[in-house]
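One such shown below:
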Amino acid sequence: MRATVVVPVLKQARSRSAPIEGAATRSPESRLDEATGLAEAIDLDVVNGAIVPISEPRPATLLGTGKIEEIKAQLDEHDSGLVIVDHPLTPVQQRNLEKEWNAKVIDRTGLILEIFGRRASTKEGTLQVDLAHLNYQKGRLVRSWTHLERQRGGGGFMGGPGETQIEADRRLLQDRIIKLERELEQVVRTRQLHRAKRKKVPHPIVALVGYTNAGKSTLFNRITGAGVLAEDMLFATLDPTLRRMKLPHGRTVILSDTVGFISDLPTHLVAAFRATLEEVLEADLILHVRDMSDADNQAQSADVMRILNDLGIDDAEGARRIVEVWNKIDRLEPETHDAMVQKVAGAENVVAVSAISGEGIDHLMQEISKRLSGVMTATTIKLPLGKLALLPWLYEHSIVDGREDNEDGTVTLDVRLAESEAAELERRMGDGPKPQKEDWE
């Protein structure tokens, strides 16, 4: 379908958002590029784009009459039957604009929902998208079937009209929403069970987050060897993916690839995807992937941090759990590339990489090991003959720095373990013959 993208720029809104870090750096041109990319992600043919300054939004149409007529002429010129307005629209505004332009109109929320609907491939993803879509549609029912008004209710002349078609539709939507919410409650319980199982075999969890198209899935594939869909498009990945991976010192961790974030993400979408985003909350380490080749990466980073704050990860916790991964440095000019690498070399919690070329990946893996080893304790343990079966478990769940096979058949190991794994080892050592006190150091 031939589509036109309209980006309203509200002068008052810009001045109000200026105090928010990074908000003022997002240019109208970058918003137009992003909205065009969103449209192209669902195979729309964007034939025209327009940036429309608005001094004061109109309650009925958002845009002024002059701009509406100007865009109407552009629609006729480009034979465009769909208008994407990169701004939230009220149901009244959407309906009035459709009448004025004689074309289908969707706002930013509707476009994102459409993309999510195309990308959802699992039952969980489909449930979440359906729930968000129904909540969005519930307030946008129009009285298209008033002639189908049902017979009068009650007795005598005091009974008002029976249930109208719009009321019936709204009731059916609400029934469907309740059904989906119940199914999603089951999804939440299932995820909690999965997390509980992972905690029994306590591999640390590393979660990838970032603005959409920052390169999370490409990075995920680079360091795990997985075959997750990774394309140069917005929201290429929707459903979360988890894979085991080995760190340089042999420790096993679980890496989680999550849905990309985006500015002005609808609140009911965040609510619908909370079951998915809880994977981030449970992570021991969060890798915030940023596209450093994008001129608006600072604003994108602020949008991601704002959503993480909404999920419950405050600044203090973020400083402890988040490592910034400056991705796509292969796209930078040589001078900019060298300056960025030099800047990162002296910074904490920041790693510069290229998921495509592999540059910096080794450094990233070392940083992950370093951050996760921060909660490790080093100890020396002597395994008696009756506990040699623990050797495979120790090699999988700890970092073995040294081993000595003794003449009496026992084995002495220098190991580093996380707190939870040290507790699990103590429990396993307590089953059966216990080592002597001198066996521990």
